[in-house]
Predict the structure.
Amino acid sequence: MPAASTDHQRRRRLAWLLLAAGLLALLAGLVTGSNGVAPLATWAELQGDQAGLILGQIRAPRTLGALLVGALLGLGGALAQGLFRNPLADPYLLGSAAGAGLAVVLVLAGASVGGLAISLATAAWLERLGLVVAAFAGALAGVLLTLTLAQGAVQTLRLLLAGVVVSVLLGAVSDLVTVVSPDALRGKQAFMLGSTSFLGWPALAMMAGGLVVLLALALRHARALDALTLGEDSAASLGLHLGRVRLLLVLLLAASTALAVSQAGLVAFVGLVAPHLVRRHAPGAHAWLLGASAAMGAVLLGVADVVSRALIPPQELPVGVVTAVLGGIYLFVLLRRRGLS
């Protein structure tokens, strides 16, 4: 009982911390512009004629979108790590990233072959109208190809190996396409580095609706994830149909990852680090872990988005680079501490 009470207090404390951090990240995103984090400049802008455009159409949807993308990646990471019983699993493990990247490259290469010059304006137009759909479809196609190669989701090891093979194969095809059509390389690079610059209100509505549905479905199968952590034999003895449960979890993982990737590109480390931080500071069953990982992912990407805009104003860094650096430093320090202990 004392241990259970302590765990409950840790989870409640983390929940309040995530709520406070999320609100601070939202506020920081609203006051971060071309001058970096500038509350006074933001207050002056609110008094001008462009307040609705700056806050309502640029900063607010971008900041809220970063939180939603992070939540989807955090949820995907928790599903992947529970499914494979591996704390190093991430949402891109089953070929979704490689599939999305290949689809984006094919769209850009097709536009180039069709005679379109890949200027900044054209690239922006393509990203808003074509690349989102292509990335979403490509991510789902990559996961479906993995499932086909693995002959379903019955064996976890076969599924994992199939994901590695599909990722390598689709990545190689993507590189080959960029060799044939060099104009597609710039768009591919922007997609691979991740960006929240193009997020708008329609994208937010889509991600918010998808997050609610996917989180609700994931929570309905939280006990199945708990059973899988006990081992396949124990899960089967509890009456679980392992192949069916794994297939459903893979589809939820694919949908959450595809939705996030289609809107912001490949954002590294958020899906890996978010569930790890939750388990490290407030462990619990998957009913808690799934929701908390989504909240942690939202906070991590919200903070990274602010950092990407505030470091070198008026320019900004790709948010995927910021998350990769921060996530890599965290894991490096964690490994060093564990090695010393």
Notes: The chain has a mean pLDDT of 86. The beta strands are 32-33, 36-37.
